[in-house]
Amino acid sequence: MNAIQRLLASSLRKGRMRVRFQSNDRPTVPLGSRILTDPAKVYEHNMWDHMEWSQEEEAAAREKTTENSSVRVQLEDQVKYENQASKYWNNFYEIHKNKFFKDRNWLLREFPEILPVGLQNKEKKEKMSWDFVKTDATDSFSKTSCLDVPKRVESCKNDFGDNFTYSQSKIRSGDIQHPKKKKEEASKTKLFPGSCATFRILEVGCGAGNSVFPILNALKNAPETFLYCCDFASEAVELVKSHSSYSPAQCSAFVHDVCDDGLSYPFPDGILDVILLVFVLSSIHPDRMQGVVNRLSKLLKPGGMLLFRDHGRYDLTQLRFKKGCCLSENFYVRGDGTRAYFFTKGEVHNMFHQAGLEEKQNLVDRRLQVNRKKKVKMYRVWVQGKFQKPLHSFHHNHSDNRIPGISAG
């Protein structure tokens, strides 16, 4: 039995629920700064950051995935899991409600770009996790894409009868429009939730709101911002809307299947400052991922950011799958019918590059999760990236590289 197999054997137990990344158990040390330098101290903490794998460990993990993917799910069942994906996620939220995942309080430390520039400065009192390792990534959001919003705000009424509060000015494609436009021009602009906001965020796959409410809490003193959140599980969207902290004045939750190109969003293309795509793309069939990323790219304004985090190749979750759970290479179905793909850094780069986005960060996050009571070690792997829409249109010599359906700006 090799090293990885021994770790797996010691960490498996009947009925164990899958584990999502949490940071709440390390409140005294900035996320990402806990480095294991003495193996004898491995059980002193619950999580160790930036773990390096030996060639032997990686080979053992590769061997394990080859073994658990040797028996594939029958084709008719694969079609069922694809066609009824929303049903399985609805069932998941009907059973677990909002009790399964904890709030992602680590989100703003990893992705300060979620906030307007003024609020980012407040969050930077605590260093981001990747400040503690050397990478070639550019972690900071380009300041040219975030203009300082005016302090003066006013109320405006949208088509849906809700009273929203927004900034007096409106930013489009990096330029500030004067609020006193000609009446005929103003009449052409259709109002929509968040239409008067100056900083707009979309979370794709919001689930029960474990990212939504930490973000709204950070934005409570920024009425010029607006958060959209969507999920194709209607049960999840209802959980968000019924939460005591949900406010239609600053948030719009809606049901949406990102795989359906024929579905329109409740706002125009090219207006978003930030898109949050966290542990969502992995649940989509690999053949449809590129189309989803292409479509999301069109929603960003020039300079806008797409923030990504998801399962990495050879994560403990992947190694735990049994034979007969593999749908296709590195793509699996869980016992409840939901699915998971496990990415490499290169795959992530290629997807977002083909969608016309510039890579600002793309890294593999390897951590060692420890059960100190049972003396169990579990290797976790995630891929994290930040991708920016170019500030200017592509030059004519790039035209041959454009993806069909993607705007040049």
SSE diagram, text form:
Elements: H1 3-11, E1 47-48, H2 55-68, H3 75-83, H4 85-96, H5 107-110, H6 117-123, E2 153-157, E3 163-167, E4 170-172, E5 175-177, H7 183-187, E6 199-204, H8 212-218, E7 225-231, H9 234-241, E8 251-255, E9 272-278, H10 286-299, E10 300-311, H11 316-319, E11 326-328, E12 331-333, E13 339-341, H12 345-354, E14 358-371, E15 376-388
Parallel strand pairs: 6-7, 6-9, 7-8, 9-10
Antiparallel strand pairs: 1-14, 2-3, 4-5, 10-15, 11-12, 12-13, 14-15
Search tags:
3-stranded antiparallel β-sheet; globular; alpha/beta; 12 helices; 409 residues; 8-stranded mixed β-sheet; 15 strands
Q: Can you describe this structure?
A:
- The chain is an alpha/beta fold and 409 residues long.
- Helix content is 25%, strand content 22%.
- It has helices at 3-11, 55-68, 75-83, 85-96, 107-110, 117-123, 183-187, 212-218, 234-241, 286-299, 316-319, 345-354; strands spanning 47-48, 153-157, 163-167, 170-172, 175-177, 199-204, 225-231, 251-255, 272-278, 300-311, 326-328, 331-333, 339-341, 358-371, 376-388.
- The chain has an eight-stranded mixed sheet with strand order 1-14-15-10-9-6-7-8, sandwiched between helices. Strands 11-12-13 form a three-stranded antiparallel sheet, with no helix packed on it.
- Helix 8 (212-218) links the parallel strand 6 and strand 7.
- Mean pLDDT is 76; it is low at 7-30, 130-188 and 395-409.
* Rg from alpha-carbon coordinates: 22 Å
> Tell me about the biggest sheet?
8 strands, mixed
Q: How much strand content do the residues show? A: 15-25%
Please give the count of helices: 12
Mean pLDDT: 76
Strand order of the largest sheet: 1-14-15-10-9-6-7-8
Spell out the helices and strands N to C: HEHHHHHEEEEHEHEHEEHEHEEEHEE
- Alpha-beta content class: alpha/beta
